[in-house]
């Protein structure tokens, strides 16, 4: 399987739905090029299933582009688990005013994304970061975003824990989901609230513009200190992904030394 870019002659023409011109405006030619790249290089490298080529516009490109309706003006956006650039690339094409970081752990996918960014002339608007999603917002100097988007990356409870530290207080999570979104939300609402998401609701993007609107869970990171962050401040918190943080060896020794002089008190911890 070659990583070489196909020539223009080898890229098939795909019928462009009329609504694409409305969504992408002057960037419609770039959206057409991206769709053709998905149908060729994307399939060759295993990023897109071969059976998806006939429905790339409706099921993938337009489905992601309408997400622009839920993104605030001028937002800094992180696309978590970007894969073939969905939804980040269509969103960037539809919204020239936003800046997008595509976060993807797999090298071959990052290579494809970097080629796409160059081919579409998006170097000033879109960047590619290889790594695990939460690492983009870890540490005192970690970057925080105004919006985080994800397309079927993980169960909602897990996704909420991953994205929370990546967002600024008041930042918005936009999770694209399928037809079971209301059931998923019912199961995860309590956990999302505990993590620090409020309000949480479901919105439909593209209604009246595309045949099947895109269902999106929209959640706002609370502006106050979350329970997990409060525990972190006391040195006994949780990781960004919900797993317990191990105490350092020094903290453990200090605890044992204190324990020799003071009675042991009961302490409950979440697992």
UniProtKB/TrEMBL annotation:
Q: Which GO terms describe its molecular function?
A: rRNA (guanine-N7-)-methyltransferase activity
* Domain of life (superkingdom): Bacteria
Q: Where is the composition biased (Basic and acidic residues)?
A: 228-263
Can you say where in the cell this protein is located? Cytoplasm
Q: Which CDD domains match?
A: AdoMet_MTases
The positions annotated for binding S-adenosyl-L-methionine are 81, 86, 151
Listed under GO cellular component are: cytosol
Q: Where is this region: Disordered?
A: 221-271
Q: Its Enzyme Commission number?
A: 2.1.1.-
Pfam families listed in its UniProt record: GidB (PF02527)
**Which SUPFAM superfamilies does the UniProt record give?**
S-adenosyl-L-methionine-dependent methyltransferases (SSF53335)
Q: Which UniProt keywords apply?
A: Cytoplasm, Methyltransferase, rRNA processing, S-adenosyl-L-methionine, Transferase
**Main function:** Specifically methylates the N7 position of a guanine in 16S rRNA.
Question: PANTHER family this protein is in?
Answer: S-ADENOSYL-L-METHIONINE-DEPENDENT METHYLTRANSFERASES SUPERFAMILY PROTEIN
Family under the similarity heading: Belongs to the methyltransferase superfamily. RNA methyltransferase RsmG family.
Name the chain's protein: Ribosomal RNA small subunit methyltransferase G
Source species of the chain: Frankia canadensis
Q: What is the lineage of its organism?
A: Bacteria, Bacillati, Actinomycetota, Actinomycetes, Frankiales
Give the gene name.
rsmG
